[in-house]
Design brief:
Blueprint lengths: L3 E11 L2 H11 L3 E3 L6 H15 L6 E7 L2 E7 L14 E6 L2 H11 L4 E2 L8 E6 L5 E6 L2
Length: about 140
């Protein structure tokens, strides 16, 4: 069984980083959270592969904010509104206790998933679609 521990972040698609930054940062008073240090080459390769395989445009930027102990990730992807299971679009991220058990459970019940490459720099991540096509990320730091 998958045991979640809480919500890690919520990601939504935006079209204009400056406008969104004004709204969430200046109007709502959220603090900017720096992006984690990542292997840029692996991250670009992963991004390009997802964009190609899912048929979605590549994100053009974004900004992250702290919302209490949860983060809000705003992902700039102009002109794209379809839900496709892409990790670069709107999704709910749940922190799981045991990533390997989560992976085994998904395989056992036959749920397709997209897994980030190991050592990408943002913990371990899997994305699935709920019955309505919404993207859900299941993640762990290790």
């Amino acid at each position: 069984m998958i045991k979640t521990r809480g919500v890690n972040h919520i990601a939504i698609r935006i079209s204009d980083v400056a406008r969104a930054s004004d709204f969430y940062g200046k109007l709502l008073g959220l603090e900017v959270v720096p992006f984690p240090t990542m292997d840029r080459e692996k991250a670009a390769e992963f991004r390009d592969g997802v964009a190609s395989s899912k048929g979605v445009p590549k994100p053009t930027g974004g900004i992250w904010f702290a919302a209490g102990s949860t983060q809000l990730h705003l992902i700039a992807t102009p002109g794209h509104t379809e839900r496709t299971g892409s990790p670069f679009g709107p999704h709910l991220a749940l922190e799981v206790e045991d990533f390997d058990e989560t992976r085994r459970t998904l395989q056992k019940v036959g749920i397709d998933f997209l897994e980030a490459p190991s050592r990408l720099g943002a913990g371990r991540q899997i994305w699935i679609s709920d019955p309505d096509g919404n993207t859900v990320e299941l993640r762990a730091e290790k």
